Amino acid sequence: MTSHTATAIAHPNIAFIKYWGDQDPKIHIPANGSISMVMDCLSTKTTVTFDPDYDSDHLIINNKSASQKSLARVRHFLAVVRNMANHQLYARVVSENNFPMGAGIASSASAFAALSLAASKAIGLNLSEPELSRLARHGSGSACRSIPSGFVEWTAGEDDITSYAYSIAAADHWDLVDLVVIVNKEHKKVGSVEGHQIAATSPFQNSRVSGSQVRLETCRQALLAKDFGKFADIVEFDSNLMHAVMMTSHPPLFFWEPASLELIKQIPHWRKKGYPVCYTMDAGPNVHVITISQFAGEIKEKITRIPNIINVLYAKPGPGVRLGDTLTFY
Ligand code: PMV
Asked: What is the CATH number of the domain that holds 278?
């Protein structure tokens, strides 16, 4: 085999019903199912080259050699791909993002989704969408939701075969916008990998997980019916439940900055005044403010009046992972 290369592009996703904690941490079988939206505009582009002349794996992120921690994660993932293809070649992985990493925007989701397609193609595998989603899950759980397009549900399942994500509505189903409010660009101190491991130490995790079927059902129905009021209530509730688990685990995890809390307090007031708007937060201080595109300008103006906001990114429902090499910088 000579050298083989493939390039893929993927986007992060924002969860409306959250994944937090695993049944099987080794292969990221989640404690509960989740629902998300692919975020257009924010992108990761990854090129993978397998070459018989390489004597180890290399990882370059945003033009710099990656940390040992990131390299170890990618090596672990490449071992899964090599095993599937029955090849023992090393790879060079070159990845670039057009958004800040490690600040509550799931960079690991777009990274492992792009890596799944680029690595599997480069090594000669032609995987179906569910197969790619299962593969991406090995890198980072939420990456399995960046394989399909638009609005996506990840069925928790119980093993490697039954746990994968699929689209429940196309990207043009609902013109939602995610205004990602950046309040802190620092790389987060405790990542989701460690967070999932301690989720079960919170006395609230069992109750969060046992109610998840009902929340998934409510969220899916609200999304499909484009019922913003019902959608807003369940999305905020689910985010609050996850953060309650985070804050009560051992050790406790507090991701909110003063500006995050200010937004969480303001947004329900804006909704009471008639604006279709709600919030959700991942494992970081940034707040994802979800609205409908025609209100995005007005909502952005309200957001920027709050002190200590660094930037507001704009994401629409986006496409799934694909081969290609054109990465637009916004
Ligand atoms: O896939 P991970 O390990 O990055 O975990 C994602 C966890 C959250 O972003 C907090 C929630 C979610 O469902 O995306």
From this structure: 3.30.230.10
